[in-house]
Amino acid sequence: MLGRTGSGTAWHIEDMKFFSVNYLHDGEPKYWVIVPACYEPQMRELFKKYFPDLYEECEAADLHKNVFVVPQLLIAEGIPFKTIRQLPGEYVITFPGAFHTVVNGGTNVAEAINFATRDCTCTKGTSGVAKCTCSEKEGIEAVAESLKIYEKKP
Question: PANTHER family annotated for this entry (predicted)?
Answer without folding.
Answer: LYSINE-SPECIFIC DEMETHYLASE, LYSINE-SPECIFIC DEMETHYLASE 4B-RELATED
